[in-house]
Structures are given as C-alpha cells and as structure tokens.
Write a structure and sequence with these properties.
10% helix, 2 helices, mainly beta
C-alpha cells in the first residue's frame, strides 16, 4: 500500500520508510489527533527511516513499533554516510503525554546539549523498550529540563546472563 492506512479513528499505520509524503512517519505525526496512535506496517520490520530534518511532535500521541519483529530505526543521518546531519532526531514538546515504544533513535547531531537523539524541553515524554544510541551531543543522547525527573538505567543481567527473578527485582527497584 502506498498511503497511510487508517485502522481506527485513533490509529494510523506507517507504510513507508520515506522521510515524508503519503504513508511516512512524518505525515502520520501531522495527521494524528491528540491521543492518537501510530503503528508500523509489518513490511517495515528492521527498516531505517532516514530523516532530512527533525521530527517535531507537538501533541500527545503514541508511536508504537512493538508489533515489529525487528525494531524500526529513525536516523538523523539524512545522507546515509554514517554521521548525523542535524539535531535532534525527535523534538518532543507537548504538555500531553508522548509515548515512544520499541524504536531505535540514532545519528542525531547537536553541539549545544539540546539532545542529539531526543530533545524534550517542555514535554511530557515516556520511552519504553527503545534504543537511543550513536547520537552526538556533548554526551547527551536525550536532553530535557524539569524538576523531580530522572533517567535511571538499570542493569539487571551480566554478560553471562541471569534469571527471570533478576529482571523482576530490577523492575521492582526501579
């Protein structure tokens, strides 16, 4: 299918790995209503979306890649040469909750500590089961401001593995 397919009034399915146009993630974000949900067609499993500019999300919505067997990658490497070309990959700025689930955000580029992977200055953001890696920004893959917030990575398994009880204990103490 060439265009974005509406599954229900609140869900849009991305059908193209193109940066923009019909079926793209950028178009789905534009078309989504507050509280909407964006999912990906199975054909995009393991695909990379090479962005020409930052994806701005200025309303509460969910971008969910959890149904894909292999995560979809959203890359700031617009010319696919291995380095980021702009900053950030995603700019999340909504008072309503923005949820990013099961995505890879990579190759964002910033020199001013504004978040190479994700910039979240005034937004309400939840990130689950996602990877934010290989972004350039003075050491900040995600940048945001807010009181009483924290990002807490928790390692519950060693390189030799572990048990389900280790994972459960890590989730409990998080």
């Amino acid at each position: 299918a060439m265009g974005a397919t509406s599954v229900s009034a609140a869900t849009i399915v991305v059908t193209s790995a193109a940066d923009s146009g019909a079926g793209s993630l950028r178009q789905a974000i534009t078309d989504s209503a507050v509280g909407g949900r964006i999912e990906f067609a199975p054909s995009l499993s393991g695909a990379t979306i090479y962005l020409a500019s930052t994806l701005t999300i200025d309303k509460g919505l969910t971008i969910d890649g959890s149904t894909l067997p292999v995560k979809i990658t959203i890359s700031g490497d617009s010319d696919a040469n291995g380095t980021g070309n702009f900053a950030p990959v995603i700019d999340a700025s909504s008072v309503d909750l923005i949820t990013l689930d099961s995505l890879v955000m990579t190759k964002g580029f910033s020199l001013n500590a504004s978040g190479g992977g994700i910039r979240n200055i005034s937004g309400n953001l939840a990130i689950t089961n996602s990877v934010i890696a290989a972004n350039t920004d003075n050491g900040a893959g995600v940048a945001g401001t807010g009181f009483n917030i924290r990002v807490q990575p928790i390692r519950v398994l060693s390189k030799c593995g572990g048990f389900n009880s280790d994972v459960l204990a890590g989730m409990y103490w998080a």
